[in-house]
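Appendix B.2, paired examples.
Example (i):
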Amino acid sequence: MNTNVKENNTEKYQTIRFEVEQGIGLLTINRPDKLNALNQQVFLDIVDCLSAIEDNVRGLIITGEGQKAFIAGADIKAMSTMTESEAIAFSALGHKTTMLFADLPIPVIAAVNGFALGGGFEMAMAADFIYASDNAVFGLPETKLGLIPGFGGTQRLARLIGASKAKELVFTGRNINVDEAVNLGIVVQSFSSQEELLNAAKATLLQAMKNGQLAIAASKKVINESSDVNIVEGLSLENKAFSTLFGTKDMREGVNAFLDKRSANFTGK
């Protein structure tokens, strides 16, 4: 399939847009009147979209519609009448959605513009890394509602910045600006505008797409799976993935291209 052709599957979904161009998928949460707040339908649309991603998509960007918010959080009005059993199902759906980003064998960048609060922050942390514009604001304010983060925030934030700092942010519910987010290692890089942010995310994915896609998938899997194991187990995972790649055509092509002083032509095999 020609990855340079722009495809638009927006009509399939109620709350998101999904477009593919140059092999890059752009998933946009499209509820600007609600500051892109998460409800059950948003999760269902994302799950359906991610479950149907085709092989022509080699990288993914998740972002939010409009200038004000990436995702301002979960839809509090929808949550206000939930029973305990409904809350269990809602949290489980959020976990399923965020894990799909982690399980995709392609690079996923969260391009955060404006507010990324509560579930929005949790969604961003499910990506492989975060780029943000200068007006980005992050926070997990759930304790102000008598709740805790329910879509992976207690787990991902602690792994990202350490338990002590994660507890401080969760206990206080305070927001942080992009400069603090960069200093804490939450955000990889910040940009002056939403346009610059998206262009940088696309440029990073295009650069990654020149490399072996099997190698990227393997490295993502090893990094993710070793984040909560000891160094010996982590090295074992790395050893297995490293050696398995020697049985691929892509590895042979990459090595031969280096020796021949030419660009590699990776095929994902």
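Example (ii):
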Amino acid sequence: MGKKVQGSRFKVQKFLNFGVCCLLGIWCLEFGISTAEADEQIPVELEAVGITEQPGAQISLDVPFTDEEGKEAPLSRFFDGRHPVVLIFAYYECPNLCGLLLNGFLQTLAQMSWTAGENFQVVTLSIDPKETTDLAALKKKAYLEKYGRPGVEDGWHFLTGKEENIKKVAGEAGFGFKYDADQKQYAHGAGIFVLTPEGKISRTLYGIEFNPRDVKLALLEAAEGKIGNVVDKLMLFCYHYDPKGRKYALFATNLMKGAGAVTVLGLAFLVAGLARRKYKK
């Protein structure tokens, strides 16, 4: 009887250990915990790969690239001092992650009332120096057709460039990538960078799918009130970026302040109205 109980306890303990390992694995994947932090050595192929947040970092806007029409396109061409810019690192022949990232971002754009070219700019930069202008042009045509909004030709750009220039800008943004000769593809992270109209990193959003509200708030934040209407700016007042959750959440303090201000204003109108009635009588 004792052996059976002991055996049952062993099975339960084994099951619990397995469950803990599974939860730990999911947690590591969800929050981007590296294998080094899990007391395991990072594979050589993944060293220096990933996204490192560098808020406030200035991107070199004078670095030359080539746009989808074959014209020279320094990044300064897309920064007008008023509109924010979404910078996306990808490569056009990527068999996996890049397509998911660009498709996910496109779905986000389709759900937003704002339009690229009117309220903000989007720049996709290929991390593969071997990719050509023709390939960039095909990629732009495909995505703009899916986007389906008039006037976006001047709002979403697909660039190519030399290896040293790509690495310079990627390094400034905190985007690490590496070519895997065995797999014949690039290892890299997934995310988008929201830049100020002057070219500084304002916010980094992770993943391959993005909440339209988060993208809009990040753009509002980057523009520092230079875009959007009163309602948009009020929304930014109510939300703040949660670095742990990597998303925007309601800022309770500001919400309470706003509610308090509305209450005080309402009371002031009420008192003024009562005083006016009394004066008339």
